[in-house]
Specification:
Blueprint (H helix, E strand, L loop, with lengths): L6 E6 L10 E10 L10 E6 L5 E7 L5 E6 L7 E11 L2 E5 L3 E5 L4 E7 L4 E3 L5 E8 L9 E7 L2 E6 L1 E3 L2 E7 L6 E11 L7 E2 L3 E6 L3 E5 L16 E9 L12 E7 L2 E7 L1 E2 L6 E8 L7 E11 L9 E6 L5
Parallel strand pairs: 10-18
Antiparallel strand pairs: 1-2, 2-5, 3-4, 3-6, 6-7, 6-8, 9-11, 11-15, 12-13, 12-16, 14-15, 16-17, 16-18, 19-20, 20-24, 21-22, 21-25, 23-24, 25-26
Length: 323
Amino acid sequence: ITHEAELAVSAETDAGPVVPGREVEVRAAVAPAALGGGLPSNGTAVLLDADDRVVATRSFTGAGPIVFRVVTPSGLGIGVHELRVRVTASGFLATESAPLRVEVAPVAATVVARPVGAAEVRLGEPVSLAVEVAAASDVGLIPDGAVRIRVDGQTREALLVLADGRATATLPLPDLPVGEHEVLVEYRPGTAQFAAAQADPVLITVLPRSVAVSVALVDAGGRVDVTAGAEAALDILVREVDTPADSLLTPSGSVRVRLDGEIVATLALVPLTSLAGWAKATVRLPAPLLTRGDHELSVEYLSVHPHPGRSRAGSAPVPPRRR
C-alpha cells in the first residue's frame, strides 16, 4: 500500500488595502508536514478566492518560492477577499494554506467645483458650475459616472464627460432668490472602481436687481402736459438695469399706475420687439380724474420674478380745459 505524504503550505502578503490598477503579491512556500518528510520535485499551486474561484496558477519545484502577482481589478475585484493557496503534487496530498485576507479598495476621487464666471450675480442671471473629478492617486484611471448638485432643496444631475484625461461636467443651477446659497456637489461613480466623493461647498451670492421705470412723454423735469377734462393715454416703458447689454432680460409682469396716490390701473407688460430689454404698457387716464392743476403720477413695476422693482414717480400737471 502506498501512502501519500502530507505537505505544509504557508502564504503571506505585504499588501494592505490596494486600489484598482495596483498589483497584489502573494508569496507561498511548501514544507514537509512532518519532521524528515520529503518535498515534491515539482507541483502546481493555485491561488483561490473564497468561492473557490481560480485567481492564478503557478508551477513550482521543491520548496518554492511560489509568487503570485495579481492585477486589480481584473484579477481581484473591489471588496475583501479571503485567498488560499492550494498545492498539488504527485505522491502528496493536496494541501491548502490558511486563509489570507486581502482588501481591494475603490480609488478615492477629488472633486473640484467652481462657478462659470463670477460667484456673485444679479437676480435672474444664469449660473452654472464647472466640475472636475480626478483620481486622488496616480493609478492611470479616469473617473466615470455622474455629479449631482444640491441647492436650496433642489437636486440636479449631469453625466461626466471624459476628455483629455479629465472628467468634467457643467451644471446649470436653478433660479436662485436674492441672498447667499451654499451649493453642494457630489460625485457618484459609474463603477465600483471609484469611491463617492464631495467637493468643498461653493458659495453663490445673488444680488437684487435694480429696475428703472420710464414713463413716455415725461421730460427731464418729470412733467407731462395733458388737457384737463380729456382722456389721456400715456405709454409706460420698463427696463431692468444693472444687466449687461449683451444679456438683457426683458421685464415680465405688470405695472401698477397711481394718480395722486390712488390706483387707477394695473396693466400687463408687452415685450417690445423693436427694443431689446424693454417692455411696454399703455395707461388711459379717465377724463373725470384730470381736473385742473398738478397731479402726481407714479408707476410701480410688478415683476413675475421675486426681485424688487423701483418705480419712478412723475408729476403730471394738467392745464385748464379749454372751452
